[in-house]
Amino acid sequence: MKKMKKTLAAAAGVFVGFLNGLFGSGGGMVAVPVLKALGVEDRKSHATSILVISVLSLFTIGMYLGNDSFHLTDALYYLPGGLAGAVVGALLLNKLPLRWLRLLFGGVVLYSAIRLFFR
């Protein structure tokens, strides 16, 4: 059983990494439900997802920079607000009731889906 769980986790990692490389950080939307399906507790699945996506994003940045797909200066305008939001989100993760955390996550996923659908 333990070997099966490790195999599923590795397959999930490949899938999330693929989505992250394809969409930027879109793999994070899939990582949380996958981690929960593998038995990881809610808050821990969100935090683990962030760590996984951070590492994958660093690798993806290197790939995009190597392909000259963008210039780092393009991201500089977004970084201060993104860092501030990341700090606030990380501080709120342990303070928000699980119900609110689930509603927020579901709302972001739903909003993203609707936005993509109507583009």
Automatic annotation (TrEMBL):
Record bears the keyword Oxidoreductase: no
Example GO CC term: the record gives: plasma membrane
Q: Which InterPro entries match?
A: TM_pro_TauE-like (IPR002781), TSUP/Inactive_protease-like (IPR051598)
ATP-binding as a keyword of this entry, yes or no, is: no
Compartment annotation: Cell membrane; Membrane
Kindly give the membrane topology term recorded for this protein: Multi-pass membrane protein
Q: Where are the transmembrane segments?
A: 47-66, 75-94, 100-118
Highest taxon of the lineage: Bacteria
Primary localisation category: membrane
**Keywords for this entry?**
Cell membrane, Membrane, Transmembrane, Transmembrane helix
- What is the name listed in the Swiss-Prot or TrEMBL entry for this protein? Probable membrane transporter protein
